[in-house]
Amino acid sequence: MLFRRSRSFALSDILDGCRNQKHAAQKQLFEAYYSFGINICLRYADNREEAEEMFDDGFLRVLAKIEYYDPGQSFDAWFRTVIIRSAIDHYRRHKSSIAFTSIEDAYDIGYDEGLFDRLSAEEILAVVQLLPPSYRTAFSLHVVDGYTHPEIARMLGINEGTSRSNLAKARIKLQELLTQRAESSSLNLRNYV
Question: Which of 49, 99, 108, 125 has an alpha carbon 20 to 30 Å from 191's alpha carbon atom?
Answer without folding.
Answer: 125
